[in-house]
Amino acid sequence: MNKIGLFYSFNTKKTSKIAELIREKFTDVEIDMVNVETVTSEQFIAYDNIICGVSTWFDGELPNYWDEFVPDLEDMNLSGKTIALFGLGDQKGYPENFLDGVGILGEIMENQGARLVGYTPVQGYTFESPRAVRGDKFMGLAIDYENQSSMNEERVLAWIGQLRSEFQ
Ligand SMILES: Cc1cc2nc3c(=O)[nH]c(=O)nc-3n(C[C@H](O)[C@H](O)[C@H](O)COP(=O)(O)O)c2cc1C
Questions:
Q1: Best of 88, 125, 128, 138 to mutate for ligand 1, by most ligand atoms within 8 A of CB?
Q2: What predicted TM-score, i.e. pTM, was given to this entire model?
């Protein structure tokens, strides 16, 4: 499998914990951790296998650091790129916007030609927003630290197993 670029904000504690867990458990592939707060387009397109970590802030919006990178993403040709998203959200506190950041980022990346992988079933979550959902799946991995943190590790491990067959 090709090297993976894992993009997330180094300043967000919960997203960072999940990113580090992914790197720790995804033992059979080289993973570069890249801080999305300082990322350039060149750094992003240097990888064919990409993981992005995004939480949802501001009631259904991207966090600042991803938001600032959107104009660059909208200028990129992402065809040939395989991208897996993991999102952090709070399904009880924000059921109307649960994990919207994954939906927003996923739509942009698909529009630019990326192939999104790592979809996971919505079973086991209670929420209302359809933004991050396609059919009966999230457009990535859904992590809810506020309400289901005890499931984080098993969810991450299952997702890594899935990515082993879905990445190139
Ligand atoms: C002001 C505020 C707004 C939030 N809005 C949403 C939201 O719209 N949808 C959602 O799923 N989670 C929302 N959350 C929950 C965060 O996404 C969640 O706490 C996440 O774990 C934060 O991860 P981070 O600290 O790594 O960014 C919000 C949290 C805060 C404090």
A1: 88
A2: 0.98
